[in-house]
Amino acid sequence: xxRIPVPNITLRQATESDWDFLAAVHETCMRDxxxxxxxxxxxxxxxxxxxxxxxxIQSDDGxxxxxxxxxxxxxxxxxxxxxLPTHQGRGIGTLLLKRLIDSAHASGKPIRLxxxxxxxxxxxxxxxxxxxxxxxxxxxFMSYWPLER
Length: 149
Hints:
Layout: E1 10-13, H1 19-38, E2 54-59, E3 62-71, E4 76-83, H2 92-107, E5 111-116, H3 122-127, E6 131-135, E7 139-144
Parallel strand pairs: 4-5
Antiparallel strand pairs: 1-2, 2-3, 3-4, 5-7, 6-7
Keywords: Acyltransferase, Transferase
Protein name: GNAT family N-acetyltransferase
Domain N-acetyltransferase: 9-148
């Protein structure tokens, strides 16, 4: 199998004008998993979207997703890492996780995230050193520790 090369990936801060794009990416990437988990899809309310932690993922093909990371006093919280399905499987998620892991090492803070149990994204996190800390019926709570625990 021939591997598609990782495109040139850049990030830019999300702005109010990105709301429709962010909502569309969120629905495209998460709707099926939400329906599998809860039986329905509820879009994220506009006032719940913290634009200050969102960045738009850009490639040579244009805008292809978003990443949202909140820097808390004791951890980096990976709230979202959504890549449009047409751009998945190209190493973009891994590239962005490696950048975040570098930030974790620089800050000495762990990275924490949650992923729906039905979402196969758990595999990319595990391949990059994340461990499941605990699970509920709906989610896995995972972390990456840059330092020995």
